[in-house]
Write a structure and sequence with these properties.
By secondary structure, the protein is an alpha+beta fold. It has a single domain, classed as Double-stranded beta-helix (4-Layer Sandwich), CATH 3.60.130.10. Helices cover about 25% and strands about 30% of the residues. Strands 1, 2, 3, 5, 12 and 14 form a six-stranded antiparallel sheet that branches. Strand 9 (about 155) and strand 10 (about 160) form a beta hairpin. The chain is globular, with a radius of gyration of 17 Å. Mean pLDDT is about 90; it is low at about 130-145.
Length: about 240
Amino acid sequence: MKERVAEAKRSLRSEGFAVIPDVELRDAERVLSEFGALLPQYDGALSYEVRSEDGIGGIRYSKGTDPIGPHTEAPVYDVPPPYVALYGHRPAACGGGRTSVADGIEILEALSERAREIAQRKAIEYRVTRVQGGQDDLSEGEDAEIVKRFPFLCSDAAGPVLRFSHNLLFFGDCNPTGGEWREPEDPELAELASEVVSLYEERCRPILLPPKFLLIWDNKRCLHAREGFSDLNRHLTRYWVA
């Protein structure tokens, strides 16, 4: 396992993501501790079960079956989780539900000069409301909505931090409960979003995560997405890592 973790760290540095095979569930948290400390997620727990729930339909979020477009994890957080990991229990037998990952730094470098300028200058208003099921809530108490403003390209002491949400830009909320696809009303954001999504689709790596495989990616650097699927037995466990 030590060699596999070392190889994963090299892959994280070079490509932004890594897959570690043959990890028993009882060992997953210990393996992830080699990359950093586990962080509490939206519901306060250190692990989150990604599986469909009865009654969740037509909602583009983790416990639904609809596709989720390219995004970074928790873009509304002041400090998003540095790493996100998924542990495979059971892939969707229908062949859908693949997670895809793409290097956002490569996408940023491939943007047109105008889009790169918009990416640094133009704040996106990230809006998150409560969703059916409750466990993905970002709000607390009686607050039903969180709104924060960040550009696509931010930075911290360690370097670039990308924030993006296909849900937000094309469906109006990071956790949309329905609605039709639409272009962003702001023409500059529409231009930026169109380029980012097009480049993501060209460059992303789809991954159907087998049982006992662990996928980890750099959330400051990578965008990820999910295909739609019909097999309600699909099951992953998600972790956030500092």
